[in-house]
Specification:
It contains 36 helices and no strands. The chain is an all-alpha fold and 654 residues long. It has a domain at 541-649: Tetratricopeptide repeat domain (Serine Threonine Protein Phosphatase 5, Tetratricopeptide repeat, Alpha Horseshoe). Helix 2 (23-33) crosses helix 3, helix 29 packs antiparallel against helix 30 and helix 31 (541-553) runs antiparallel to helix 32 (561-572).
Length: 654
């Protein structure tokens, strides 16, 4: 009965499509009806693809089934595809997998490849890289290009096997030679980067161009970037734009962004910010995170649109919420710095954390700094170390420098000068001038290395010549005292001035001393006062005192007792004893401030707190003798209260 109904079904099918059937298909149909298994399978293919006969998924599925029931591996595979694609049968992935497995028993490579893909992705079966690798290998050894390509990826990424770039290249090359454009693109990357094969730019370009000409969008974009940058080919903006536009015409958002950048930069086309924004918008409409970032920059800078910082932040937020890590980091920076948003450390940490968890190096570093300083989070050296380590392991010199500081100072780890030197050397090798400065100090102090002032000078010199103000200052100090280098006051003054011009307060103060004493330069009270004033504005207490003294005595500036008292007060509030003594005199004499014995005694008591200056102690005793006991008691009490409050203040970062 079943075969009778099947016969009736095929008669109906044939009668419906007889007008469209080719002679070749008629012959195939006759063979199939006569029981030829290969003909039944091939007829199914013709029905499924509409080749020489009207497209009919139901007929295709039935002919596949007829051949599959007779254990034909090809038919079993195609019947599995019908269940997967819902061609002539209801979609049923369980049955699709079952038929693929039957086809695998017959060593049919397409089925091995397809089921391997399922195991690799974990779709419709439990993910199993080892199983995927085995299936890809079987199919690849039968010459299936797609399987050769996927097998190459497995070896490149370590799916089901150890990472093996050389074997990856071998399989990519087989697939590429068989015309697989994905493999051609991956092979080009291997030659570009020298992974698994000697770097060869000419060969890389050849394979990349093959893939691009075959329609691989990534390859088209990469060819564009090569022509734009001149990598492996002569720089040619027009050719770059051509490749970008090919991929963009297929709706590739990365290519659309690249075309937009060409308009923004005028590469191969007239510069046009409006057209650039239009292309960025097209890419953004496809939820492409980097496009959101570009649009944000346009609004932030007023490129192709009216400047609108608020709208810029909205686009940054969209990019961040779309999962684009660079935007997540940038939004964190906006909240940390209060750039176009209300400053909010907790929100900054939120976005840094998300980006850091995805491996963004700057976000990992910023999160480490937050834990190091307790900004937006509870101070936690161990957590800081964890994030610094992640970024340092990927080569970020700033994180390596911070790990050096932690080792040198014992933050979260036992103090270890040798380990600190190791981290500083790694960071310095990448041009980190701060690490170079610290390494120089290690040589100067003999921390983790043999003490060597000459090596310290050499390192300071290198860093100073690259513009490090801190290194310039230290180099000046070494010239001044003749440590590791022949003493030269004039060279010291020159390096102090270089650092001072960059706003380095300690050098500004030192240069003022040079001009005040005539050491290494011609004596010049006006320039001395000028540099002390600059250093004082930076909050350096010794400079605040010195500039106050200039104002008090009229040295290099007009005499101004009130300004003197103000600068003395600033330095005194930082527990600078000379300033406390001078301020005491101001209150005792009513010079620049209202006269006040209690205030005078308070500041004199604070100036004498360490008991090292006998003259001040004698003056304090003489001054107290002329005061009423209650005035002395109040002054002592106020001094003690001030000192207790001062000890609780957070350290000032100069």
């Amino acid at each position: 009965m079943r075969y009778f109904l099947l016969y009736i079904f095929f008669c109906v099918i044939c009668s419906k499509s007889v007008w469209a059937i080719s002679e070749e298909a008629k012959s195939l149909l006759a063979k199939a009806q006569a029981g030829d298994i290969e003909a039944q399978c091939d007829l199914g293919v013709r029905y499924e693809e509409g080749m020489g006969i009207s497209l009919n998924y139901e007929a295709a599925a039935e002919w596949y089934r007829k051949a599959a029931d007779q254990n034909n591996p090809k038919a079993e595979y195609y019947l599995g595809k019908c269940y997967a694609l819902e061609h002539g049968v209801r979609k049923d992935m369980k049955k699709a997998v079952e038929w693929y497995k039957k086809a695998i028993d017959g060593n049919f490579p397409d089925a091995e490849y397809m089921l391997g893909l399922y195991y690799e992705k974990g779709t419709y079966v439990d993910q199993n890289y080892v199983e995927a690798l085995g299936l890809y290998t079987k199919a690849a050894e039968q010459g299936l290009p797609d399987a050769e390509y996927r097998l190459g990826l497995c070896y490149a990424k370590g799916y089901g096997t150890a990472v093996d770039p050389v074997t990856a290249v071998n399989w990519y090359e087989k697939a590429a030679n068989h015309g697989n454009i994905e493999a051609q693109y991956e092979l080009s990357n291997c030659y570009f980067e020298g992974k698994g094969v000697a770097q060869n730019m000419d060969t890389a370009i050849q394979w990349c161009q093959k893939a691009a000409e075959g329609g691989n969008l990534k390859a088209q974009v990469y060819m564009g970037s090569c022509y734009e940058s001149g990598r492996g080919v002569p720089q040619n903006y027009q050719e770059a734009l051509k490749w970008y536009q090919k991929a963009a015409s297929m709706g590739d958002p990365e290519a659309e962004c690249a075309v937009a950048s060409c308009y923004a930069l005028g590469h191969g086309v007239d510069q046009d910010d409006r057209q650039a924004l239009k292309m960025y918008q097209k890419a953004a409409d496809r939820q492409y995170g980097p496009a959101y970032m570009k649009i944000a920059v346009c609004y932030e800078s007023g490129l192709g649109v009216a400047k609108d910082p608020g709208e810029a932040v909205n686009w940054y937020r969209q990019a961040a919420e779309s999962g684009f890590t660079e935007a997540q980091y940038f939004l964190g920076r906006c909240y940390e710095k209060g750039t176009n948003v209300r400053q909010d450390d907790e929100k900054a940490i939120h976005w840094y954390q998300i980006a850091a968890n995805q491996g963004h190096l700057k976000a990992q570093y910023s999160l480490g700094m937050a834990y190091m300083t307790g900004r937006g989070v509870t101070l936690n050296y161990n957590e800081a170390l964890k994030w610094f380590q992640k970024a340092a392991d990927k080569g970020m010199s700033e994180a390596q420098y911070q790990l050096g500081l932690c080792s040198e100072n014992g933050y979260g780890v036992p103090q270890d000068y040798a380990k600190a030197v190791e981290w500083y050397q790694k960071a310095m090798a990448q041009g980190n001038s701060l690490a170079e400065d610290r390494l120089a100090e290690c040589y100067a102090m003999g921390h983790g290395v043999t003490k060597n002032p000459a090596e310290a000078v050499r390192l300071y010199q290198k860093s100073a010549e690259r513009g490090s103000a801190k290194a310039q200052h230290h180099l000046a100090v070494y010239y001044s005292i003749g440590l590791g280098v022949a003493q030269s006051y004039s060279m010291a003054a020159q390096w102090y001035e270089k650092a001072a011009q960059q706003g380095y307060a300690e050098s500004q103060n030192a240069l003022a001393i040079c001009y005040s004493t005539g050491q290494g330069v011609d004596k010049d009270p006006v320039k001395a006062a000028l540099w002390w004033g600059k250093a004082a504005e930076s909050g350096l207490p010794e400079a605040e005192y010195a500039f106050g003294y200039c104002c008090d005595m009229g040295l290099g500036v007009a005499q101004d007792p009130q300004a003197a008292a103000q600068w003395y007060s600033k330095a005194a509030e930082q527990n600078y004893h000379n300033a406390q003594y001078a301020l005491s005199k101001c209150y005792a004499l009513g010079r620049g401030v209202a006269r006040g014995n209690i205030w005078a005694y308070k500041w004199l008591a604070l100036a004498c707190q360490d008991g090292s200056n006998k003259q001040w102690l004698e003056e304090k005793a003489a001054f107290a003798a002329g005061l009423r006991p209650e005035e002395v008691a109040t002054g002592e009490s106020q001094a003690q209260d001030w000192l207790e409050a001062y000890k609780k203040r957070p350290p000032v970062d100069q």
